[in-house]
Design a protein that fits this description.
single chain, about 240 residues, alpha+beta, Immunoglobulin-like, 2 domains, three-stranded antiparallel beta sheet, 14 strands
Length: about 240
Amino acid sequence: MPYYGVQNTPCEWSYSSPPRYREPESDVTLDVEITDPEGRTQRVPAFWAGNNTWRVRYAPHAPGAYRLRSVCSDAENPALHGVEGALEATAYEGTNPLLRHGPLRMAENRRHLEHRDGTPFLWLADTWWMGLCRRLPWPDGFRELTADRVAKGFNVVQIVAGLYPDMPALDARGANEAGFPWDRAFKHINPAYFDMADLRIAHLVQSGMVPCIVGSWGYYLTQLGPDVLRRHWRNLIARWGA
């Protein structure tokens, strides 16, 4: 049975494995090769969603039939590796400019931004560095501020994904309703934190606002090391790259 999606709109599906890993988050990685209707293949990372489940998000760029094939670092796991599937995408027919015109890119003349379909885009951003934590509570506070900025003509929100500036890592001020993005030892990502962040990011997109996501401040590289930052960024790209 194929999955179904809409052009430029993130769709999601999951893969689950029997328990066989001591640390499923770090013991394996999972990607999905997605071949579009024109035969071009893109490799999309999956994110660990807790327990023995991984999820994939993808926004089809055109209507049509897409082919899927999972690629796992553990090639001996048939639940995660070599799983084939299909995605059927239909055209977007709504009024949201992000979904109608597609994601942003640099124009060919390298002088301005535009959507995938060539529609020019003027970047008018508001900065909410700590918008994914309880300082901007979900849902009321976040929705109220989003509506205010939309009414004032903003179309981008610049927001930090959990590792905030000007405070120590995992400072109490940076928690959201599900805690911190990582455990105290920076050994495990907290999927519940990012599930709450998902609600905020999705609301921005639904409101026609581009989320400009800052993964972390640079000094975290020396504090936490490249492996933690690599896993942090992979999780962000897998969750919000679509």
